[in-house]
Amino acid sequence: MTVLSSLRALVDEARIRVTEDGLTVRAVDSANVAMDDLELEAAAFESFEASPGTLGLNLDRLADPVRLASKDDLVQLFLDPESGKLIVVVDGLRYSMACIDSKTVRAEPTPPEFDLPAAVTVDRDALQRGVKAADLVSDHVRLRMEAGADALVIEAEGDTDAVTLELDGDDIEVLAAGDASTLFSLDYCKKLVRTIPARTPVTLDLGEDFPLILSYELADGDGTITRMLAPRIET
Amino acid sequence: MTVLSSLRALVDEARIRVTEDGLTVRAVDSANVAMDDLELEAAAFESFEASPGTLGLNLDRLADPVRLASKDDLVQLFLDPESGKLIVVVDGLRYSMACIDSKTVRAEPTPPEFDLPAAVTVDRDALQRGVKAADLVSDHVRLRMEAGADALVIEAEGDTDAVTLELDGDDIEVLAAGDASTLFSLDYCKKLVRTIPARTPVTLDLGEDFPLILSYELADGDGTITRMLAPRIET
Amino acid sequence: MTVLSSLRALVDEARIRVTEDGLTVRAVDSANVAMDDLELEAAAFESFEASPGTLGLNLDRLADPVRLASKDDLVQLFLDPESGKLIVVVDGLRYSMACIDSKTVRAEPTPPEFDLPAAVTVDRDALQRGVKAADLVSDHVRLRMEAGADALVIEAEGDTDAVTLELDGDDIEVLAAGDASTLFSLDYCKKLVRTIPARTPVTLDLGEDFPLILSYELADGDGTITRMLAPRIET
C-alpha cells in the first residue's frame, strides 16, 4: 500500500515490468519534473510466481481494492491470461480489473546518470518539518550543503518572511561533504516527502543546480525506491 | 440515538404512533423505494407513561437536542398537552419543540406481505464490506443465493471491472436455502447498511427480483427494525 | 498558542505593547462589537528581556511558525533591532517575520467603565453547552440573572422552538446577585466561548441591556484575558 501511494503521488498510469526476480516500475510525471524508480525483489512477496512481461495499470484503480484490505490481510494478485484482467483477492473478496495496453502508457524514461558532490542521510520527518516550514513563506525551497561542514540546510525566502532549518549533529549522516545548493519546487517536494513512510532514513544526493536524487529502502529491505527531482532554475 | 439515525436515513418527517405498549414508527422514503418499520416496546424506556395518540415529528429537529446528551444522560420526552409541544429534557437543558400536524405527514404505508424463498443471517460488517467493494465498480449490487448452497454472494459488475464477495461457513447462518437473485440500488443499500449499528446480526429475506426484507433487533432486544428495499429491475 | 487563538478569533492584526513588566495586547473587532484585552506578566515567560515599545503584528502569520512547535518546545521570540523583523526560533527552525508599522494597525480602544449589577463565575464548558443549544433554535442568546436567585439562565427562542439552560447549585458561584438580562449575538458568543480553554472558570459581569464583561486567567495565573461583548438591542 505504501508503495502504491508513493507512485500515485506522481502518476496515474504506469508500466510494470515483471521478471523472474521481481517487479520494476519506472514512472515520470507529466511535466517531466520528477521520476520514480521502484524495484521490488521477488523476496518482498509472500510468494512470487510470474512469467516475464509488461503490464499497464491504472494505479488509482489498483488502490481501490487494496484499500479494502485490513493491515494483516494478504493481498493476492493474479493475471488472468485468458481475459487479460488482473485479479485482486483480499480475504474472500475478488476484484477483477481491466489492464491498460502497456503500449498506451507513457514510455519509461531512461534514468540520467550524474556524479553528485554531496550526499547525506536524514530522517524523513526532519525533511518534512523543513518542507512544511518553507511552505509558510514561499513556493520554493533550497537545499544546501558546504564542503567541510557537517550540516544540511533547508531554507526558503518569501517576500517579507524567511525560514531556515539547519540539520546537523545526530540528525544527519554526511556521506559526501561537497558544495551543493539547489532550489526546488515546493509542490513537488511536499508530494515526495509526504509519501515516504514516517521515520524512514532517506539519502539525498545533491549538486549545484542539479537534480536531487532521493532514495530509501522499503520496510523490509526487499526493495528500493529512487526518486529524482529536477531543479528549479532561477531566471 | 441509534434508532433516530436509522430512520433519518430514509425520511425527514414521520408519524409516531403511541400506544400503552410502546411506540411504532413506519416511514417510507419519498421515492417509494425503501420502507422502515420500527417497534419500540415500553420496556425499552426507563419509564413509559403515555396516552395513546399519533404524533408528527421532524426527525432532523428531534436529533438536535438528543445530540447534546452525553452517552449516559437520560433523555426525557414529554408532550405538553396545552401547547402541543414536545419537551426534551437532557441534564438541565430544556428544549421545547413544535410538533407537526400528523395529518400533514406522509400517510403510513401498509407493509406488503411476501413469502420469500431464501433467508440468511449475516453480520452487518460483512454486508458493509460487500457494499463498499461493489461501490467501487457500479451503481448496483446483486444479492444471490442458491438452493442447496450455503452461501450468500454479493456481486457487482462495472464496465471494465467486477467484484464478488462470497460469504459462507461461519460468516453466515442460512435460514432458508432457496434460489434468489435480485439487483438493488447501491445508494439505498449504502444508506441502510451504514445506519445499522456495527457488529449487529442482520437477517435478509430474498427472492427472485423481489424486495429485500432486512431486519435486526435493537441493542437490548426491546425493539425491532424491519426495513424493506424495492428491487432494481433491469430493463 | 492558546493566547494566540483567543486573539485571532477577533482580529487579524494587533498592536502589542511591551513594557518591562510584560506584554499588553488590546484589540477590537472590525464591527466594534467585541473587544479583547490581554495582559501577560513577565513571569509568564521562561525568560523575559525587553526594551519598551510597541509592535504591530499579523496574528495569523505569527500563528504559522508557532504551530510548528511541539507541545513541549520552547518558542523563542526576538526582535531584531536592525532589520525590524521578529525572529521566532523553535527547536532549530528559525523563522524571520516582518512586523507591521504599528501606526497602521487599528488604534487601541479605550475600555469603557461600567458598574454592572450581576456577576457570576461558571465553567467554560457549561457556557459552551448553553451556547450550542441556543444555536439550534436562534441567532441570539439571552443571559439572565435575578436579584436573590442563585442561578444563571441561558435561553434562546426561535420561531417554533425554544431552549433554556438553568445553571445553579454547584455549577456556578454567584458573586453579585443583581437583576440582569441581555441579548447577545450568537456568532460572537460562539467565537468567544470556543477559544477559551476547556474547563476554565470564567467570570461574567452582566447588566440590563449592557455589554457583557467576560474574564478568565491564563493557565498559570501569569496573565488575564478580559473580553467585552456589546449587547444586541431588540428593535
What keywords describe this structure?
Pr_cel_nuc_antig_N (chains A, B, C), homotrimer, 44% strand, 4 helices, DNA binding (chains A, B, C), DNA polymerase processivity factor activity (chains A, B, C), Pr_cel_nuc_antig (chains A, B, C), alpha+beta
Silhouette of chain A: elongated
Poorly predicted regions of chain A are: none
Span between N and C termini of chain A? 39 Å
SSE arrangement of chain A, N to C: HEEEEHEEEEHEEEEEHEEE
**CATH topology type of the largest domain in chain A:** Proliferating Cell Nuclear Antigen
Strand order of the largest sheet of chain A: 4-1-2-3-16-15-14-8-12
Number of helices of chain A: 4
Broad CATH class of the largest domain in chain A: Alpha Beta
Largest sheet of chain A: 9 strands, antiparallel
Query: Can you count the beta strands of chain A?
Result: 16
Helix content of chain A: 10-25%
How much strand of chain A? 35-45%
The largest chain-to-chain contact, stated as pair and per-chain residue counts, equals:
A-B, 11 and 14 residues
Oligomeric composition of the shown chains: homotrimer
Radius of gyration of chain A: 19 Å
Number of domains of chain A: 2
